[in-house]
């Protein structure tokens, strides 16, 4: 981590500073309601620790802070596509591109950060013009809004997800009751099914066909992570399990036992007409299990 630090907001009980990690710009937030961090590379939320709780997001000890490499953990933004694409970066180029810091404001409730990312023909298979504005709020609760504008002359198709990695006691100590008996596509065997979700231990890679509010209950931490999403159509539940995680160089040993991914997404391509825009949003609140 570079020792050179730029102060962006400095007022009573509030500090927002920018430094670098291996050349990657990192924004750190200290506020009476929370501590948080994000990377301008990939527009990537790294951590959020609301007052009275441990960090909500998981970040691998082996993650890359390197141009062209994705950050493992936090909230990667999968866009303009979700999943693998031949000859292209998995989950899209938004998570391997530098974003611009546009605005930082502070209030008694928390800190709002606005980032932007725009361009034209960023990928050989996706030659379109766009502007994405990401508005993040860090406080007692967390919100993330992604405004996507088609700034070119041609319609384009896109899909994506807010790939949230949640820090948990153990996946087998967690569950998402709202997803039990909800139809899902199982990416591990290519089938659609409905079944009881007893816990979140891996390997699991499922796309649930619902956008209702959900709760990630962690009985080991006595923590309830409540999620609501807008502008999305699915929840993706993922934990790689030990065998797959062992093959991932950027997941530290045993890391798969420390997180559950629960992602608000739209995993079927949607058309965005030239000149139009669309928004997706998630809100996360944390409490103890009552």
Automatic annotation (TrEMBL):
It is an enzyme of class 5 (isomerase). The keyword Flavoprotein does not apply. It catalyses: alpha-D-glucose 6-phosphate = beta-D-glucose 6-phosphate. The lineage of its organism: Bacteria, Pseudomonadati, Pseudomonadota, Gammaproteobacteria, Alteromonadales. Belongs to the glucose-6-phosphate 1-epimerase family. This is Putative glucose-6-phosphate 1-epimerase. Its EC number is 5.1.3.15. Keywords: Isomerase. The keyword Transcription regulation does not apply. InterPro entries: Aldose_1/G6P_1-epimerase (IPR008183), G6P_1-epimerase (IPR025532), Gal_mutarotase_sf_dom (IPR011013), GH-type_carb-bd (IPR014718).
């Amino acid at each position: 981590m570079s020792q050179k630090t730029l102060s962006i907001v400095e007022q009573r009980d509030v500090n927002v500073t920018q430094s670098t990690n291996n050349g990657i710009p990192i924004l750190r937030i200290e506020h009476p309601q929370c501590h948080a961090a994000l990377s301008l590379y990939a527009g990537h939320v790294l951590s959020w620790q609301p007052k009275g709780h441990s960090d909500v997001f998981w970040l691998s000890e082996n993650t890359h802070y390197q141009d062209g490499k994705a950050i493992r953990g936090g909230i990667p933004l999968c866009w303009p596509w979700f999943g693998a694409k031949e000859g292209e970066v998995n989950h899209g180029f938004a998570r391997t591109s530098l974003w611009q810091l546009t605005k930082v404001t502070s209030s008694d409730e928390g800190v709002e950060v606005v980032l932007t990312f725009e361009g034209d023909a960023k990928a050989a298979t996706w030659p379109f013009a766009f502007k994405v504005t990401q508005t993040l709020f860090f406080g007692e609760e967390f919100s993330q809004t992604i405004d996507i504008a088609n700034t070119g002359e041609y319609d384009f198709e896109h899909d994506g997800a807010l790939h949230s990695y949640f820090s948990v006691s153990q996946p087998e100590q967690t569950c998402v009751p709202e997803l039990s008996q909800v139809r899902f596509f199982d990416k591990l065997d290519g089938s659609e099914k409905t079944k009881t979700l007893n816990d979140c231990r891996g390997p699991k890679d499922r796309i649930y066909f619902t956008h209702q509010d959900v709760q990630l209950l962690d009985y080991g931490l006595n923590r309830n992570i409540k999620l609501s999403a807008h502008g999305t159509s699915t929840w993706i539940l993922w934990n790689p399990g030990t065998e797959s995680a062992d093959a991932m160089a950027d997941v530290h040993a045993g890391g798969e036992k420390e997180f559950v991914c629960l992602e608000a997404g739209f995993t079927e391509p949607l058309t965005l007409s030239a000149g139009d825009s669309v928004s997706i949003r998630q809100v996360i609140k944390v409490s103890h299990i009552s």
